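pasting for the record
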Amino acid sequence: QVQLVESGGGLVQPGGSLRLSCAASGSIFSISDMGWYRQAPGKERELVADITYIGSTNYADSVKGRFTISRDNDKKMLYLKMNSLKPEDTAVYYCNADISDYDSYTRRQYWGQGTQVTVSS
């Protein structure tokens, strides 16, 4: 089975930086688009950034210029470098990936369990 596991979340002060990682594992035939989403208390889950297999990126306006999404296809890893963090960045951050599973013969989006990012003084 396929799974995504996020890591790197934590408590940081406003203006600080953090790097999130997402590791994909299991019966993976291929991984297409990947992305980071976040959900703050009382709010809908929203796209933070996504990236194609070849590295084309897209960012939410709220994080553009501050966050950088990247991936390592050989390692099946996804990253999110977050700089100049603001209190409004506080949320659970989720890894998302479009994955073809060679055991189940399926292609669908998978989600990680999330990692908490808290930006506070």
